[in-house]
Amino acid sequence: MDGYTIWEHLDRSVATNDWYSMFLGTKLFHLDVTTSDHKPLQIAPKGMNCCLQKPFCFEQMWLTDNGCTKTVEAVWCESSMETWDTKVIKKIDKCLIELTRWSKQHFGSVRKELEKKRKELREAERRALRTGDSRHMRGLEKEVNLLLDKEAKMWAQRSKVLWLKDGDRNSKFFHSRASQCCPQNYITKIHDNSGRLCTRPSQVIDIITNFYQELFTTGGPCSFEEVTDTIPWVVSPEMNARLSADFIINEVEVAMRQIAPLKAPGPDDNILVAFETLHYLRNHNTGKTGYMALKLDMSKAYDRMEWTYMEMVLEKMGFQERWIKLMMGGMRFKDLSNFNDALLAKQTWRLLHDTNSLFYRMFKAKFFPNLLVMEATTPANASYAWRSLMYGREVIKRGGAWRIGLGKSIHIWGDNWLPTRNRTKIFSPMGPGSDTAMVCELIDPVNRTWRAKVIDRMFLECGAAVIKSIPLCRTIQDDVLIWPFNPDGEYSVKFGYKFLQEEALRCHVDQFEPNTLQPLWNKIWGLKVPDKVKHLVWKACKNSFPTKVNLVRRKAITDGLCDRCKQAPEDVVHSLYGCPILDDLWKHTKWKNGALKHFTLFLDLFDFILAGGSDVELVAAITWNLWNRLNNLRLGKPTIPLNKVLEHSWEQPL
């Protein structure tokens, strides 16, 4: 206008206050351009992760290259010293890493390589017209065709179209289908369980991860008779004969070919948060305000299938035991009870370490607002979900171990913190008022060393030596509860199940290797006590006493609770040492104040007493008198008073 140039800010960006508060520091740039009066806008977001790492996905087109087979074979041919199950998992993980590396180095980007070869082909065609030599052009045509086949397989896999077969290059159609799936597969925002809309990628990941972790966790139900009693016997002997017959190669091959080539099955389970919410609604019967829940989405029925229920249904329908074992043992679950406990322990582990999840916040607010989950109690109106989690907590308590930092979170007596297998607790006699003593009291906070004189005074010689051998961190670190059976210290269902299986095996002393227990037997038979006392101690170590726990295991009775204290199951350790009514007796010995109550097997308890080297004969005599007295009481026969047992044990002969 009249020779003047007018500049106007026409190109702008718009954002809401909520969006800008989430991505503070985002900048807008006007870029220079010579082909338009408008300037393009460049938005540089801050705090927005736009480059999320994609999970590993096996590309079907890799199978067209021999390098894929060689890469996999190289990984599986490597020698390894781990157990077979650990070896399989590690080799699968390494296959993912090596295939990704091979694809980047030798396979590259199909689209970029195809574009490059097409340019070379056009140049080769012009050269062939000039020279008449078409050999190079024919070679490039083969390479382009090979890349086109790979591209077709790549887009076919992404399109998820299963009704088309290999042979035709439908790359354009597949690309269109995959492009439609792309925006559907990318989740930009999601509502959490409280209804709050979450848009940050980290929030979206946490919500989805927590949902499936909770979905794949069993609720541990145990009573199905109301349903299973109505199931008829429908499997005939002929059907069982066919189902239980040996498998042949052709059957396996046919079954494998019926599986969609790009599909893989996955597990299903339940959600603890939803269970807890419904429990609250069902028990909210007071006040003027009421609540209700509407289930607007229905999962498939088998999403809530419990393995124990499935096993009972198979039995009621008439399937043979071998077939049932194939169905259940095919997942390598030899003990469903232990596997359920291992799953529940995983959830307890999450409550210990995943403190940012909705699962943790909900259960903490309701059950342990001012405590740690390891200190929480079980109220009378607790839900089935919380009671089940407490079973899982017991697994963590028995198998977990503390890695010492400051020592302020670890009780000297009762917690697992010794780095010795099967003896992770302190078993030295506990002094008066020491039940709340913490490990930090044994550490010099200035020099970060053990207080050797205090330790030597408080503990037995063998226990003191173990404590003083534990290395202490020179810097300030918190105490951490770890799972010592996993090399990385993290709890997993696999290692939890293995721990429970080994623990159950230890309850059956007969399954120990004979040579392992022979030194203990030699020490027992060498005691300076009557033979009847030696024999009784030997039977106690073999877990051969008819305690109520053993009678329940043999299905002779149904209640294993101790008749005297009504507080705990009556096993060998409880009947001879752990029962509260025996505290007055044992307080007059070296093993007072429940110092040995943490042993689960009398074999380990007596072996520990033997290692101490003192009062062994007295303990053996007390053992004989206590068991003899208990049997007389059950038979209604006269027996010595409990306050006279120690006196009788000092006397000889018994």
Question: How does this model look, in words?
Answer:
It is a single chain. This protein has 654 residues and is mainly alpha-helical. The chain has helices at 17-22, 66-76, 84-107, 110-131, 135-159, 171-185, 201-215, 225-228, 237-243, 249-257, 272-283, 307-317, 321-329, 336-353, 358-367, 384-399, 452-458, 461-468, 493-506, 514-525, 531-541, 548-553, 572-578, 583-586, 602-612, 616-635, 645-650; strands at residues 27-30, 41-44, 190-191, 197-198, 401-403, 443-444, 449-450, 480-482. A two-stranded antiparallel sheet has the order 1-2. The protein has a two-stranded antiparallel ribbon with strand order 3-4. It has a two-stranded antiparallel ribbon with strand order 5-8. Mean pLDDT is 78; it is low at 161-169, 177-183, 264-268 and 297-302.
Topology:
Blueprint lengths: L16 H6 L4 E4 L10 E4 L21 H11 L7 H24 L2 H22 L3 H25 L11 H15 L4 E2 L5 E2 L2 H15 L9 H4 L8 H7 L5 H9 L14 H12 L23 H11 L3 H9 L6 H18 L4 H10 L16 H16 L1 E3 L39 E2 L4 E2 L1 H7 L2 H8 L11 E3 L10 H14 L7 H12 L5 H11 L6 H6 L18 H7 L4 H4 L15 H11 L3 H20 L9 H6 L4
Antiparallel strand pairs: 1-2, 3-4, 5-8, 6-7
Helix pairs in contact: 2-3, 4-5, 5-6, 14-16, 14-19, 17-18, 21-26
